[in-house]
Amino acid sequence: MTERRRELIYVCCLTGFITITFAFGRYIFSMITPNIVKELGIDYEFVGRINAFHQGAYLLFSLLGGLLCSVVSARHLISGSVVLCGVSVTLLAFVNNPWVLLGVVTLQGIFAATSWIPMVAFVAENIQEKNRGKSLGIISSGTSFGLILNGVLIPWLLENGDGHTVWLVFGVISLLLGAVGIYAITALEKNSAGRAKQRGVDRVPGLLRG
C-alpha cells in the first residue's frame, strides 16, 4: 500500500470519528431540544443546566487531554472515546429520566474532547508533515458532514417517530461507522508494524540470519 493511500484511509476514518463525537454526540441534543422538553416534561432551565454541564465537561477534558495522552496511547484514547460516544447516543434512546439524560449528555462532552485532542498527536505520528495541515482541516470538517446528515434525517425521523427514535438511529449509525473506522486503523497499524519488522529482518546480514 502506498503512503498516500494509507494517509487517505487515516484521514477518512478520523473524519468519521469526528462526525460521531461532535455532530452526533454534541449537537443532536440541541437540534431536538423541543421534542425532549415535551417528551420528558422538563423546562428550559433544566435544558440550560444540561448544556452547561456538557460544555463544562468538554472544556475540562480539552485541558486534560494532553495529560491523558501521556498515559494512554492516542489510538486507544480515540477509539475508546468513539465507542463510548456511540454507546451513549444509543443509550439515550432508552432514557426517560431527566437526571440520567443530564449525566449521559455530560459524558458526551468528555468523549468529544478526548477524541479530538489526541487526534493532533495521532496525525503528527502518522501523516507526513507536508500533509498535516490539510489533513486536520479535512478531519475537522467531519462535524459539518454530520450536521448535514442530521439536517436531512432528523426532520424525517421526528415526523415518523420521536426523540428516542432519533437517538436510536444515530446510535446505530455511530456504532457501525465507529467499528469500520477502528477496524481499518487497526489493520493499517498491524500492516505498518509487519513492514517495519520485515525491514529489520532484511537488514540483518545473511550469515546472522542463517
TrEMBL record:
Membrane topology category: Multi-pass membrane protein
PROSITE patterns referenced in this protein's UniProt entry, alphabetically: MFS
Keyword Secreted belongs to the record: no
Gene Ontology BP terms: phosphate ion transmembrane transport
Lineage top rank: taxon: Bacteria
Keyword Transmembrane helix: yes
Listed name of the protein: MFS transporter
Organism per entry: Eubacterium maltosivorans
Source taxonomy: Bacteria, Bacillati, Bacillota, Clostridia, Eubacteriales
